[in-house]
Amino acid sequence: MDDNARPHRAAIVDDFLESEGVARMEWPAYSPDLNPIENLWMSLVYRRSAPPATLRDLENAQQEEWRLLDSAVVDHLVTSMIALCTLCMKVPR
């Protein structure tokens, strides 16, 4: 899965994925809402009541939130991908 960005479509990337037998999904450009990592990141960011003041604070906060992350959140993001992709395929282009 990629968003068709130029770096993701470089010949070296295509050659590597093909050599490893990795099939690409057709994916709409600029679709972070369909990317489970983006949704996971947002679930970690929005759990804090106040934003971190420094880069070090951000790093510490993210490590703490990652440790506290309920595996059910990750499970939900993974299982919801089928429904999200199905809905996406039904939308006319």
TrEMBL record:
Taxonomic lineage of the native organism: Eukaryota, Metazoa, Ecdysozoa, Arthropoda, Chelicerata
Organism: Araneus ventricosus (Orbweaver spider)
Family annotation (Pfam families): DDE_3
InterPro entries assigned to the protein according to its UniProt record, in alphabetical order: RNaseH_sf, Tc1-like_DDE_dom
Protein name: Tc1-like transposase DDE domain-containing protein
Any one GO molecular function term: nucleic acid binding
Signal peptide bounds: none
Domain Tc1-like transposase DDE as annotated: residue spans: 3-50
